[in-house]
Inverse folding.
């Protein structure tokens, strides 16, 4: 593979999670062989996503429309909001339709050492959503890490004076566990057994 | 149960060393730098944790190897004819591609380091521990935690969580901007939860050691009196209150002032009522031996128990050396001892398996 363009493509693919230089080369080879069909189709799909990808104004989810598919789904219960750290956690929980309410993506977790402060997360937006009324339950689905649990505690305290029930994912979760890596059975169990914050 | 059929592959200066025909007493004799302590370190990795040097895994791979090491051993039941007569094969290894990641195999299946603790309790006493009483309080807290983890693996999680929370709180306290109260609340909730359990685990350890020490004869090893001095209030609720109340003061100091990070392990030579740090070298060693033996008994919990004693005989007078061998013989742990000279072990040579260690090789004697 001499061409600079092909090398650049292989290098970009190699950075994708789950891939590496070897798999990237195989993928490039595949695309080069199918330059008549597969390559244009992939290009079109990528462009489509690039041109329409937006962050949902309501929940922070990333989708191709705003409000996102979750927020605009009439079958979902908007009275119940599940708060997650990242979009990856939202997708993990939503994969198997475990949760029938809507979500709120914080965009990270509090960390004094990493310099992530409350105003760096979409906590004010969450309080605004709840303050606007029509919300009965907040489910805190932070990861079981130290920072995740600190963030959950912080948000619960900020919600204290608002008329909502605050619950937390049950701790069947492994210590240091990240939601994104949990299987659906474990997630379902954690959601079913959610409990009021102690 | 005892360890036998031990193998070391590209582990430090051992390219391929195997030890077979072990017994209750196992002696490794050889010159300085021969590779005796390295064998004890390898055995210490058959338990959860970082081993007796607390070294990085990458440093353990033999310099002349391909990077990565392997350690294996069979756990052989005492009654080779009983229903559970099959030995259990324990193994741990690293690979060149990921020299910092430790793998564990139990009977050929992939397992975790924690699972090793189901089978084996490993205790040790090394010359590096001779400084324990003169060292910083932090070194004694680490000592308590290592001993507590050997009894209750859950202790490690609380120690890790507590120190992570402590770093977060100290960062907030020392920041230029005044920390937000709700954020401190969140961190303090975790500090209190894990801190209370951490202190409790240490207190339980010291109480257990005290009991085990009381059962042992007071002579000829100086009997130490241990006490755990908590660096903050006991119990989650009181610790949480104390953290809340110290905020203004802690903010001025720029760090957390109360809590288990201020715990101390006080050790006193009971008969003389002298602080351990003020005792003679030999007396300190005797107290360490007494504590190591007491912990060995406390930590056994129905598991196979092995005790790694690096150069213990060298610093003891003949009377105490004899007493040590006697006490070890009374217990049930498998004993591994190192020394530079065979003479120090004369009294137990008839009951011992002996290897001469030289240049990373073991030759049975
Ligand atoms: N990763 C490594 N690869 C190769 N050799 C190593 C490695 N790490 C340590 N060594 C060497 O192993 C040798 C033996 O060390 P060890 O501590 O086991 O000696 P010892 O027999 O206990 O000696 P002493 O009686 O002085 O305590 C040392 O010379 C050391 O340099
Ligand atoms: Mg040595
Ligand atoms: Zn949305």
């Amino acid at each position: 593979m001499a061409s600079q363009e092909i090398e650049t493509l292989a290098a970009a693919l190699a950075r994708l999670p789950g891939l590496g230089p070897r798999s990237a080369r195989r993928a490039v080879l595949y695309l080069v062989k199918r330059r008549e069909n597969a390559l244009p189709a992939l290009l079109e799909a990528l462009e489509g996503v690039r041109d329409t990808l937006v962050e949902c104004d309501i929940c922070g989810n990333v989708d191709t429309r705003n409000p996102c598919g979750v927020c605009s789904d009439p079958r979902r219960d908007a009275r119940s909001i599940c708060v997650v750290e990242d979009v990856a956690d939202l997708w993990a929980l939503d994969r198997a339709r475990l949760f029938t309410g809507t979500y709120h993506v914080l965009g990270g977790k509090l960390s004094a050492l990493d310099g992530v402060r409350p105003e760096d997360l979409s906590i004010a937006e969450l309080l605004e959503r709840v303050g606007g009324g029509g919300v009965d339950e907040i489910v805190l689905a932070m990861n079981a890490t130290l920072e995740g649990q600190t963030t959950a505690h912080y948000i619960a305290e900020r919600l204290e004076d608002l008329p909502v029930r605050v619950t937390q994912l049950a701790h069947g979760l492994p210590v240091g566990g990240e939601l994104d890596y949990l299987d659906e059975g474990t997630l379902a169990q954690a959601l079913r057994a959610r409990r009021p914050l102690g | 149960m005892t360890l036998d059929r031990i193998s070391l592959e590209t582990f430090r200066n051992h390219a391929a060393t195997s030890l077979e025909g072990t017994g209750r007493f196992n002696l490794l004799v050889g010159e300085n730098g021969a590779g005796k302590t390295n064998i004890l370190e390898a055995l210490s990795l058959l338990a959860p944790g970082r081993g007796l040097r607390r070294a990085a895994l990458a440093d353990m791979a033999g310099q002349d190897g391909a990077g990565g090491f392997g350690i294996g051993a069979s756990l052989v039941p005492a009654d080779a004819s009983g229903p559970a007569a099959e030995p259990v094969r324990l193994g741990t290894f690293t690979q060149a591609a990921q020299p910092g990641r430790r793998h564990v195999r139990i009977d050929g299946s992939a397992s975790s380091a924690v699972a090793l603790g189901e089978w084996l309790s490993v205790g040790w006493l090394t010359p590096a521990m001779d400084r324990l009483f003169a060292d910083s309080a932090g070194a004694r807290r680490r000592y308590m935690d290592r001993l507590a983890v050997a009894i209750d693996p859950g202790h490690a999680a609380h120690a890790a969580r507590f120190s992570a929370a402590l770093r977060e709180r100290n960062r907030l306290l020392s920041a230029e901007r005044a920390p937000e109260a709700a954020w401190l609340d969140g961190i303090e909730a975790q500090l209190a939860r894990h801190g209370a359990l951490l202190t409790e685990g240490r207190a339980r350890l010291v109480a257990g050691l005290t009991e085990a020490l009381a059962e042992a004869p007071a002579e000829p090893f100086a009997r130490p009196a241990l006490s755990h001095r908590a660096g903050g209030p006991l119990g989650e609720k009181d610790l949480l209150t104390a953290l809340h109340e110290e905020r203004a003061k802690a903010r001025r100091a720029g760090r957390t002032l109360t809590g288990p990070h201020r715990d101390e392990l006080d050790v006193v030579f009971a008969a003389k009522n002298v602080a351990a740090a003020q005792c003679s070298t030999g007396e300190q060693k005797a107290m360490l031996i007494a504590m190591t033996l007491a912990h060995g008994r406390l930590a056994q919990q129905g598991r196979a128990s092995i005790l790694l004693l690096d150069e213990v005989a060298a610093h003891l007078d003949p009377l105490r050396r004899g007493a040590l061998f006697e006490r070890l013989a009374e217990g049930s742990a498998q004993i591994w001892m190192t020394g530079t000279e065979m003479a120090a072990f004369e009294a137990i040579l008839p009951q011992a398996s002996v290897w001469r260690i030289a240049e990373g090789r073991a030759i049975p004697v």
